[in-house]
Amino acid sequence: MKLIIATIKPFKLEEVREALTQAGATGMMVTEIKGYGAQSGHTEIYRGAEYAVNFIPKVRIEIVVADELVDTILSAIEETAKTGKIGDGKIFVLNVEEVVRVRTGETGIDAI
Q: Nearest 5°: phi and psi at 60?
């Protein structure tokens, strides 16, 4: 099993969610986050005053999937989250040792 963590632009969330559902993801966790990478923030003008935006709003998606679904899920995220502009996000893939469904006590792949 793998944990896939993706950071994407907020306006892409619904499109990515639909693609992940079609790709076989049975559930996901979504968190609104702020951060920066190559963008390093930017300046904006509000009511005539210039101010720095150091952290850019992003959405973090976390999905646990069976090993055989990893490539399909990665492709779904890449294809739907990509705008071709700086700040499209990142995807991380980590190993998952164990999963337990609290309600039933199921473990492993059955708990996903």
A: -105, 125
